[in-house]
Amino acid sequence: MGATGLATRLAEARAGALVGREPERAVLDRMLSGAGDAPLVAYLHGPGGIGKSSLVRSAAWRAELARRRVVQVDARFLDADPRRLEEAAAPACAEPGAVLPHDRRTARAASRGRESDFLTWWFDWLSAVPGTFPPEEVATVASSYRGYEALRAGFSHYRTLLEDGRVNRAWHETGGALPMPVLAVGGEHSTGARLADSLNTVAPRLTGAVIAGSGHFVPEERPNAFADELLPFLSAPLRRAGRV
């Protein structure tokens, strides 16, 4: 048996060793299928010890069987610098069809000790107005994120987004609605009108606005334009049902 044949048989054995997790495996297999509507990113989360790492390893082995290049990143061996993560992931980002499995600790480990660098990149990426967040403000925010546990707590908000969506959908399907006046303000270069559109079916007294020239951080990027929308909304008499 040649080396290639042995490697294939080992990969097949490893990929088939995982028991259960059929729904999750189906999602990962669809990602590997190359279908045009297949997801590009899978976020795997859950309590410790339930088999997340085993599922990721199984997905990597199945990717190898599909002749996809697999680039594995282990944050334990990276310096606490976001640039090291970018360097480690570069082969997966540069080659079409490559697969990048990594542990959820990667982002925290790559950011720990470089909180200001991470937040500077984050603010620059999401904002459309250069200089919105000067270094001294970034440093103030970074001080709240300093340390592994602070980063874990800060990122936990994003880890719950999918579950929040499921809870909100279930609430809406059972008749849930927002009876009060609601103002939805989106930045032109961020959520735009999509923010108001997403609330249209649950907020009958909805006012939507899009702030021109703004990114994600509307109050910080365009404070005057934001105030022009907010102050009339707060001072207006209670609106009757119906979007205005």
Automatic annotation (TrEMBL):
One of its GO terms (molecular function) is serine-type carboxypeptidase activity. InterPro entries: AAA_16, AB_hydrolase_fold, P-loop_NTPase, Ser_caboxypep_his_AS. SUPFAM superfamilies: alpha/beta-Hydrolases, P-loop containing nucleoside triphosphate hydrolases. It comes from the Bacteria. Residues 18-79 form the Orc1-like AAA ATPase domain. This is Orc1-like AAA ATPase domain-containing protein.
